[in-house]
Specification:
disordered N terminus, alpha+beta, 36% helix, 5 strands, 5-stranded antiparallel sheet
């Protein structure tokens, strides 16, 4: 019985940082993802719009960007991933409208 209780406590303690995050911290995180993703996509997109996952995954901030491809008339989208620990950002490959349809308000 003690072993199960210890395991339960360990799991709860490991999960507690996620519960301790404030709304302000999540808002700041989303703003960081937005700024970094827009900056990274700027060479590829004109008039980019972005939808940021407000929490991301356990390890990554996530966003979808859409806009006019620079030098073309096509509307394209990119998936943007920000490593939460390192703060580095990467874009996936260009996704055309026949592959994915994105509407960002």
């Amino acid at each position: 019985m003690h072993r199960l209780s210890g395991l339960t406590i360990a799991v709860l303690l490991a999960a507690s940082p996620a519960f301790a995050s404030s709304d302000e911290a999540w808002d700041e995180f989303a703003k960081e993802v937005e700024a970094k993703c827009l900056n990274t996509a700027a060479p590829n997109l004109e008039n980019a719009k972005i939808a940021v996952d407000p929490f991301g995954s356990e390890r990554f901030g996530l966003a979808i960007l859409t806009g006019k491809a620079k030098g073309a008339d096509a509307i394209v989208s990119y998936i943007c991933v920000m490593d939460k620990q390192a703060g580095t950002v990467e874009l996936g490959s260009e996704l055309t409208a026949d592959v994915v349809g994105v509407t960002v308000p």
